[in-house]
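Lab meeting minutes (informal)
Scribe: AK
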Amino acid sequence: IGVITYSYRSMPHNVEQLIQFVKDSGICAIELMDGPVEEYVGKPKLRSELRAWRTSVSLDKFKEVKKMFDKAGIEIYAYKTNALRESASDAEIEYALKVTKILGAKSINPEITDNAAHTKRLGELGAKHKVFISYHAHLQASDTAWDVALAQSPYNAMNIDIAHYAAVGGKNTKESLLKLIEKHHKRITSMHIKDRLTMDKGGARTTWGEGDTPIKEVLNLLKTKKYDIPATIEIEHTIPDDSNAVKEVKKCFEYCKKILLERT
């Protein structure tokens, strides 16, 4: 069980503070957002300067970041950045893939797109650098949403958000989700775990256990089948006034552990 560091967005932080947040949450594995990392390395404040910076910056300070997380006992299994958008140059994409490897992550997780030429390009560059391009879907999630990308390259992969999938409703059922995971488990590098109502009920992000996402069934599938798929906590529900992101991540971690420790 890991956490995407996006979960701590309500608590402004640098790399050092982020590491402490993760440790305080009781977690030792993450999907790392690029913001604090690039800021540590010297990211320019002007967006117009970002592409030139990414394609010219020395990568040495990213090695320092890796050492900081290693020292804290935190594994980085995925990296999340906007550097793989369709308008990005090959050089910018390759920068992001090199950073992913330096951080020790298995995959980089862009948003899914129906632009087949772009997913083909990403798959080819992923193969060049031996980094999986794991596409994340929101409400476009379906049993076939990833098919084109998966067929294009063995380095195109999946980052399923089980709450977004379930929220779609209709053909997206608990049973179809479990079948999708079983079918593609070798191509799923990580998944996002949170809770949502289905869209016919408004689609709200809810406190875990109050929505329609089959969290328990998915976690038990991973446990029973022994799939090597990190389950990534993502905080998107409203944080109570008497809590904060760290406390909410910790609650969700305990929720997962309770499920996984139950006898099935």
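Next up, CB showed the second protein from the same session:
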Amino acid sequence: MSRRALITGGAGFIGSHVADLLLGEGWEVVAVDNFDASYDTAIKHRNVAHNIGRKSYRLSELDIRDSALLDEELSGKFDVIVHLAGKAGPRQSMLDPELFESVNIDGTRSVLAFAKERSVPRVVFASSSSVYGLNESLPWNEEATPMPISPYAHNKLTAEYLGREYSSDAGGFTALRFFTVFGPRQRPGLAMHKFAELMLRREPIPIFGDGTACRDFTFIGDIVAGIRAAMDYNRTPFEIFNLGSNRTITVMEMVKSLELALGTKAKIAWLPRDEADLPASWADTAKAGRMLGYAGSTPFQHGVDEFARWTLAMNEVSRPDASLPIAQSA
């Protein structure tokens, strides 16, 4: 009998990739997504179009905050819930903190109540490196003191606390703190995606500060592998893991990689540093490596090349300078 997984946020960037992996392994997948209008819903529909109609795949359009509808629409037992649904973005959360709290905190309460009612053995939760905030002790390990500076980061930390409570009297809960995830299907609005689109249109890209801010960019394939390992983890009822690449890439290094992969030169609009942006993020992934067998090992340029191929295909354009081959990473 095949195993059964519920993926919230299942039509999104990460969720659709998780569904693909599980379907390939023979799982039955139930995906839930409310197709939030924060960006074009056609993008999410495109993410999952290739799975629609498969016997082992079901997509339900509903809001995780609606507990009654969750119970009514989602029948049967689940072996695991991968909880990826939520409002994303530190800067965006400052514009509408009440909505972010409702979706990210109340929504998580609803999912955990559903999990408890159905006796789900394990919930895997998408947390964020944003919880570390202003902690300057880089690289961050899971024992680093959280110092969140946005409603979004506070939401994620609160959801982790809810998960700890859930694990004390219900099922297992594993929180995964994702570090800047990129790759095919990345949602619009994130820096790499935004920069690539602007570069293809020959428009200036906005860079805040001097371009030396750095991020731990993590390829989607590594993140999905980490999620999959966390689904099988059962040694402790509650655990937190960083999922990153354990390396940093500056904004300007990212731009140079995009130039190489897209075959075009970036025009830069220099802007004052945004106080909402952290100067750096950097994951210590030793714990995930030791306990999950995780390795965020995809070379950065290789990941950018994959992202560039997808971006060009989605835009249905040729590379601006077709004489330059897409970089081949080792």
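CB comment: The CA atoms of residues 97 and 292 lie 34 Å apart.
No objections, moving on.
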